[in-house]
Amino acid sequence: MGGRRKLGVWIACLLALVPVGVALVLASTKAKPANVVVPGDTVILELGDQPNGQQIDEVFFVRNPGATPLHVLSINRSCGCTVTTELPDHIAPGQQAPMGFKVTTEGRSRSIEVSAVIRFAGQPPARVGVKAGLVDRLPSSVAFGVVRRGDPALHHIEVRPAIAGEKPQIANLAFDRRYFAISAHSPDAELLHPTIDLELQRDIPPGGFSKTLQVTLTIGNKKQVSNVDLAGWVQRDLEVEPANVNFGMTGSNLASTQTVRLYSPYGQEVHFERIDSDSTDAVQVVASRYTADGKSCELDLSINADAIRGLQVFQTNLVATVDGAEHVIPLECYAGRIAPN
Question: CB of 225 within 8 A of CB of 263?
Answer without folding.
Answer: no
